[in-house]
Structure formats: structure tokens, C-alpha cells
Amino acid sequence: MLSIKVGIGYDVHALVAERSLILGGVEIPHERGLLGHSDADVLVHAIMDALLGALALGDIGGHFPDHDPKYRGISSLALLEHVMKLIESQGYRVGNLDSIVMAERPKLAPFISKMRFNLSRTMHIEEACVSVKATTTERLGFVGREEGIAAQAIVSLKKVEEE
User: Is 65 known to sit in a ligand binding site?
Assistant: First the structure.
């Protein structure tokens, strides 16, 4: 069995009025937020899919179906905690995370430090192992038209007993 595994995740949510904008567990002041069954934290959703994918454990839709009322409005960080228990029960821990949020607005730089803190705490790794970046799409596509926000993540997992 391989001692290092890698997973990639991607997620998109539409921007809508009368919703909070939550990214990396941080509420960000903005006139619109992301539409979804949970808090619609697109960054955390991409990270969860990367974690699950690394161990071929399915995707977040299979673990947290959007038709289940118990997940309505739930914090995505709480869902990430559950995914981390699955990862750890398989004998793995996170080596590192690299992620990127694609949004035309708002500017995310002032919030990245808090996102990294939230993610490192929830994923049981040092902040130095958590990268969160932000970019625009130069006004191209649905992100550029401010119709939604997308995120990508890649994670490495290490077998615990081989350390």
C-alpha cells in the first residue's frame, strides 16, 4: 500500500442575495453569499472532496446529501471534522493542503490568514502546511461575471505508522 496519497477537489456555488459569504470558515462582508444546502463554503467543500478522493472514499454529496435536513445550514467546518475522522480512521493524516479560491470580488487577502488558521485547526496540521490563495478570472466566465465563486484544492495524505 502506498504511504503517500494525493487527492484533488473542485467546487462551485452561485452567488445570491440574502446569504452570508463563508470561505474557509470565515464570514466575509459582501452584498451576496453562496447558495447551497449547508453554509456553501466552496473552499471547504473542495478540500473535503480532495481528502475523500485521496482515499477513494467517494465525494461530499455521498457523505452529506443535500436532501438531508440535518445538513441544512450546517457549518462546512463541522463537515470537515467528520471527513477528518474518516481519514484518520483509515490510518492517514494530512501532509499538506494547497488551495485556491477564484472570485472577482470581494478581495480575499485580508481573510486568508484566518482561513488558514481555521483549516489547520480542523485538519490537525500546522498552519505552515496550509496554503490558501485567491485569484480573479480577469472578468472572464461565470466567476468574472460575479455569478459564482469556485475553489480547487489538492492534498497529500501520509500513512501514520510510517512516520
Answer: yes
